[in-house]
Structure formats: structure tokens, C-alpha cells
Amino acid sequence: MTADVVAGSVERGRPRRRTRQALRVAIVGFGWMGRVHANAYLTAVAHFPDLDVQPLLAWVVDEVPGRAAEGIEQYGFEHSGELWSDAVSDPTVDAVSITLPNFLHRSVGIACAQAGKHIWIEKPVGTSLSDTVAVAEAVSAAGTQAAVGFNYRNAPAVVLARDLIGSGELGEVTHARFQLFSDYAAHPKGALTWRFERDRGGAGVVGDLATHGVDLASHLLGTIEAVVADTETFVKVRPRPLESHAGHALALHGPPGVVENEDYMACLMRLNAGARVVLQVSRVSVGSQNAYSFEVHGTRGAVYWDFRRMGELGVSSGPGFQDQSVRKIYVGPSHGSYGAFQPGAALSMSYDDLKVIEAYRFLQAIKGEGHPAATMTDAVRNAAVLEAIARSADCGRWVDVVEPMGTGSPGAPLARSTERNECI
Ligand SMILES: NC(=O)c1ccc[n+]([C@@H]2O[C@H](COP(=O)([O-])OP(=O)(O)OC[C@H]3O[C@@H](n4cnc5c(N)ncnc54)[C@H](O)[C@@H]3O)[C@@H](O)[C@H]2O)c1
């Protein structure tokens, strides 16, 4: 960390000056997520005045000529470039957001750790369990902090759901449903970008959306022990893009190419604690835009959440069992980090706010306060479940999740089983 930044603030009407240590950040990959991370760094202090560091936007990198330069003009970055190595080798950079396509996570993540940089890395970390473990080991060896982009666990209603489940309000959890349906690949002329290629994207909707579902399931309900899965690719051929673009765009006149990963996945999951979970994900659901939801049932109650009404949690609890009603709770300042964004219940928060919470937890962890909202230990466990899903879809049977063991704490080696997930 470099120079201190002195910021003015007002407390009970009297101006007060607070010194925050400057923390120089770089963002590599300036598509959708790169911009969301940039916004989160810019607004973190405004939402969390207790933040001990002041992030400064040092570098923005994107391989598409001119795209990173927009970061200077729109966000105030100091430097822009086309090579991620330029940012990572800058000794003044403290932390790097890795918002690149999945196949670059491993090499960039390891390079950052070896250069002593803290990382905020997007999910899925790499294209395979081995990629995720390699990044986790590099981070562990470097003793740096790593935050992973499992943002939905930061939603205040999800925090409330976890509290209710943990407190026993629902009784013993028996079964749950997690569903993440989207239409971002529903158009048959949607461009065949890196997301649809094995080498650059890895898994398809499993790496993109099931990873969030697996994170929510394990964050709320505990360890996933075994899975049985089915996958399908419904749109088998797509046009290749004629020009490079970020996000999901159409390529009406591009030459055809083969889609190499799955559009849809459904699986059953057995949890260590005995609960049974259904997870269903799709990127080709016409009419379903970011339809991410779950319901969790226990012996005495249930909770219901839908990302598109992020501030509401349906709760059924009490002594009734049968015919027990569901009440709607609008989350408010007493739930999770809601109070950092809105002063009273039922005011809307946004997707980007979840990333501001993620940035805050990451930056505080760098300063030695707490830990990131989701860590590399979470990412490795998540990747082990995704690998079990892929193997089950291949062999058509239940597959045990081989849980890599590790402490995830800075400096500690990440021990792991050498066994592969085998069909039972
Ligand atoms: N947490 C979430 O909810 C969430 C949502 C979307 C995406 N993601 C993840 O974020 C990552 C990025 O996704 P996105 O939607 O922003 O993708 P995107 O395609 O919009 O952006 C990726 C950017 O990286 C750039 N790039 C590619 N190769 C590069 C290289 N070698 N050097 C520098 N720049 C390079 C591209 O030009 C592009 O601008 C992925 O891992 C994705 O899974 C997470």
C-alpha cells in the first residue's frame, strides 16, 4: 500500500478528517464484470465509511484496442493497456481484479499471487477443478488475500435466510430447490464467444450459473456430498462473432461454429446433513431473464427467495405444519449489509450493490479485518462439486464429491485428496 489519503467526513455536524491507507488496484478484463468491479471500488468508501483503505484505480487492461482507454475517460484509471502482465508487474499495484474469460484465470491468478498481489477473481475460478486448486495453492503460498465473485450470498435476504436456517427456525432442513434460468444464450444467432468453447470457457451453464447455485446451496445448507446430473446442449451451432465484443451479443452473419459445452443442467444433490436438493440451470430459457431463485424446506418451515425481487424473503415458520401461511419480509437495515445502501426497509438494492459488499469485504480482509465474503476455499469446494456434476452427466450415475481439504488461510498449504471423483 502506498500513500495515505485524507478524506473529510462529517460526524454529528462537525467535520472530521479520516486517514485511509491508499490501496492501488488494477482491473484486467474490462467487459461487464470489469466495469462492475470498477464501480464497486469507486463507491465502496461512500457506502462503507468504516473502510480502512481507499482504493485507487491504477490500471485497467483489456486486449481489445481502445476498450481499456475508456476506463481512463469514464472511471479515472491512471493507466490503461492491452497486456495484463503490464499491470501485474507494476510494483505499485496492491490488488488485481481478474475479470477475464475463464481460461485466463489460472495463469493470471498464479502470476498475481507470485507477484504478491491480492486478487478479487470472478467465478468460476478457471475452467476446471485443477485450475481452481492451482490458484488456491498459489494464493496460499503467497499469503495474500483472495475474494471470489459469488455475489448472491451477499444479498441481505440471503443473509437472513441463512440466519433463519442456522437458528433452527425451519426445523431440520429436509429438501430444497435452486433454479437459475436465463435467456442470454436463447437466441440461436447469439455469438459463439469464449463462453461456448471448452478451451476458453470450460463448462457452459454449469460453470456460469450452476456455480452460483452450488455456492448458495452449500452456503445455506452445508457440504454437498454426492450428485447425479444430466446436461444438454440445445443450440448446437452458433455464428462466430465477426468482431470482438464484451457480454452477450448477436452475430447475425458470422460463419457457423460448434457449441462445445452445455446449455442446460439438472441435478439431484445429497447433502452431508441429509437434505436432498434439486438444482436446475439453463442459459436458453426463453422468457426467463436472470430468474434465480431458491426455496428451502425444513421440518417446521420454509424460506423462498427470488433474485428479481431481491429484497423480499418469503418465510413460513411456526407451530402449524399443515396449512401454515407464508409471510413476506422486506429486508431492512438490520439484515446483512442492507443499511450501507438504504435507510429503511423495502427500498431496492441492485445487483451492483452486491459487488460493492464483495469489494468492501475484500478490501477489509487485505487490511486484516475479517475475511472475504467468499474465499478460495469456497471456490475449490465449489469446483469439486462442478467436476462431480460433469462426471455424473458423462457416466449417468451418482458421483461422490471428493472434497479437497484445505484451510484457505493465508500462508497455509492446501492439502488435497489425489483421488478423482469416480462413479459410484
Ligand atoms: N459474478 C457474476 O455474477 C458474474 C457475472 C458475469 C460474469 N462473471 C464472470 O466474470 C468473468 C468475465 O465475464 P464478463 O461477463 O465480464 O465477460 P466479457 O466477455 O464481457 O468481458 C471479458 C473481457 O476480457 C477481455 N479479454 C479477453 N482476453 C483478454 C486478455 N488476454 N487480456 C486482456 N483482456 C482480455 C475481453 O476483451 C473482454 O472485454 C468470467 O469469468 C465470468 O464467468 C461473473
What does this structure look like?
- This protein has 424 residues and is of the alpha/beta class.
- Helix content is 29%, strand content 26%.
- It contains ten helices and 18 strands.
- It has helices spanning 32-47, 67-75, 84-88, 105-114, 129-142, 156-167, 198-201, 205-221, 351-366, 376-395, and strands spanning 4-11, 14-28, 53-61, 79-81, 95-98, 118-121, 146-148, 173-181, 224-232, 237-239, 256-258, 264-271, 276-282, 291-298, 302-306, 312-316, 327-330, 399-400.
- The strands form three sheets. The protein has a nine-stranded mixed β-sheet with strand order 17-16-15-14-8-13-12-9-18.
- Strand 5 (95-98), helix 4 and strand 6 form a beta-alpha-beta unit.
- It is globular and about 60 Å long.
- It binds nicotinamide-adenine-dinucleotide.
- Residues 28-34, 61-64, 67, 84, 99-102, 104, 122-123, 149, 151, 208, 244, 246-247 line the site of nicotinamide-adenine-dinucleotide.
Outline the fold blueprint.
Elements lengths: L3 E8 L2 E15 L3 H16 L5 E9 L5 H9 L3 E3 L2 H5 L6 E4 L6 H10 L3 E4 L7 H14 L3 E3 L7 H12 L5 E9 L16 H4 L3 H17 L2 E9 L4 E3 L16 E3 L5 E8 L4 E7 L8 E8 L3 E5 L5 E5 L10 E4 L20 H16 L9 H20 L3 E2 L24
Parallel strand pairs: 2-3, 2-5, 3-4, 5-6, 6-7, 8-13
Antiparallel strand pairs: 1-2, 8-14, 9-12, 9-18, 10-11, 12-13, 14-15, 15-16, 16-17
Helix pairs in contact: 1-9, 4-5, 5-10, 8-10
The protein binds nicotinamide-adenine-dinucleotide (NAD).
Tags for this entry?
424 residues, single chain, 26% strand, 7-stranded mixed beta sheet, binds nicotinamide-adenine-dinucleotide, 10 helices, 9-stranded mixed beta sheet, globular, alpha/beta
